Amino acid sequence: MNKIYINDKISVEKLIKLLKISELEFIKILFLKNIILKKNNYLNFNFVKKICIELFNTEVLKEENSFDNILKKNIVLNKIFIAIIGNVNNGKTTLFDFIYKKNRTLYEYGKITQEVFVEKFFFLNYFFYIFDLPGHHFFIKIVDEIIKIVDIVIFLISIDNKVDLNLINYINILKEKNKNIIICFNKIDLNKNFNFNYFNKFDIKKIKISSKNGFNIVKLFKKIIEIKTNINCLKNNLNSGFIISSNIMKNNIITKIFLIKGILEINDYMIFDNESVKIDNIYLNNKFIKKCYSPEIIIIKKIIFPIKFFFLIKKQKNEIEKYLDYKDQDLKMKKFYIKTDNHNIGNSIINYYNKLEFNENINILKISIGNFVENDLNFCKIFNCEIILINSSISKNIYNLIIKNNLTIKKFFLVNDIINYFKNLNSCKLKELILGIAIVKKIFNFKNYEKIAGCYIEYGYIDINNIVKIYKNYKLLYKGKIDSIKKNNIYVNKVFKNENCGIIIKNFNNIEINLKIESLKI
Question: What does the pLDDT look like over 322-339, one tens digit per residue?
């Protein structure tokens, strides 16, 4: 039996559309029952319910009880978001596998998690969304972003390792941010000597577990429920989500998305800072759908997304100036073209690259997801790039063309291997402290053809006495000094987060919208 949902009253015209029959057929069926209606007549709920059951084999329900209507109200009951973090080889993925009955540990290269994994399951009348996060410090930016949206952080500490002071510091940082934390002492089945008393100074819930044999796992989830958290991510009014991972499967790009808030429909746009991506397919549980409600884990196929993390959902494309590929004129600078099969690896490399003290020694022209194909080769030939592949495939024919064109190609499997490679190039060092970041939002003309960068301070503060670097789409354009800063028509030496100001840069006038200005402590 079909179901339709209506309000207290409905027009005959709308009812015909809901029943998905022709107007002539509808009138004919009712006429045989001595019921005569006009197209513009309004019918009450009880009458419609009666005729639909008797004549059209259709159940009629109140619109307020429809599934769509319930979800539109964002009724989110008994849902908990959890992040599992800890150092490499502390058993995070093993715990994840035990909960979801998977065997991911068998397929991880080097038994190291290089992706974000998220799954949901229903237990004790709660939906649990669990994020298994990479343990390597190169992924710390991704870990930080996800921890912002979860309710509870599970610190997994293996009793067969020494106490990690970096982990202890991170616990203190999250406590200051009022995050709910549970410390899980893992591998309790090994019966090792471990200094549990060291953690007594923390006013945090603690539990001993074994992710291998499941000891105390049920008790762990009961502790999670006891905390009774609010879902922080859903307090944001913006329709949003983030990319969990992108991978290549059977030569197709498969992207897993976590929809945090709102509704995603076919032909909507995902907005990543300066780029808009139109969505033409959505899959939920391997089935094509036209609409998805948050919170949910979905798959999008055959779309190349930018190497960004969070996105907003909009009905229209953002009218944002597109970045152009920037060809550096310094022939001494080493240029790189990176292709990876993993979205999180791409994010981590960008994060590392932006933290180089002198990244003018190396210039990453492009990072993208997918296999290395002829279009990639043509780009590398034009800009004379060194090619780096991270778990990305390449045909024998394309490889031979690379060698024929005297281009360099290197292959890596782990993110720390590529980072170590960069570290050894030209004595690149991790940079000093970034004091502030400003984004150019407007451009104003000044005397002598100078341009004023109308800026919004996105992070920290900008000091006129500090060195600044200017970036365009991860490419360094300029390193030097600020000539002047003006706020509310008054010259100042310093501007702070969330303030607007005008900045003139010494010996640099190529100001563009969305340029990033970093203020550095040398």
Answer: 333 333 334 456 788 999
Residue 16 near residue 37, CB atoms below 8 Å = no
The CATH number that domain 79-233 falls under is: 3.40.50.300
Q: Which amino acid is at 402?
A: I
**Helices and strands per DSSP (H, E), number in the chain:** 12, 33
Query: Which residue is associated with the tokens 């590929």?
Result: 325
Residue range 434-520 forms a domain whose CATH class is mainly beta
The hierarchical CATH code for the domain 239-314 is 2.40.30.10
Can you point out the beta strands (E) in 473-520? 475-480, 482-487, 490-492, 494-496, 500-505, 516-520
pLDDT tens, 230-255?
444 444 446 788 888 887 777 788 89
In sequence order, the 6+-apart residues with CB closer than 8 A to the CB of 469 are 476, 478, 479, 517, 518, 520
* Cα–Cα distance, 161 to 145 (Å, whole number): 27
CATH topology for 334-423 is Rossmann fold (3.40.50)
For residues 309 and 294, what is the distance between their CA atoms, to the nearest angstrom?
Answer: 17
Rounded CA-CA distance 58/55 in Å is: 8
Instruction: Please state, in angstroms and as integers, the Cα–Cα distance from residue 74 to each residue in 122, 258, 282, 404, following that order.
Output: 19, 16, 20, 58
Distances (CA, A) of 78 to 114, 307, 404: 30, 33, 60
Reading the block at residue 500, the tokens are: 């607007």
How much is the pLDDT for 204?
A: 85
Strand partners, 181: 153
Phi, psi of 278 (to 5 degrees): -85, 135
What Rg value do the Cα atoms of the chain yield, rounded?
28
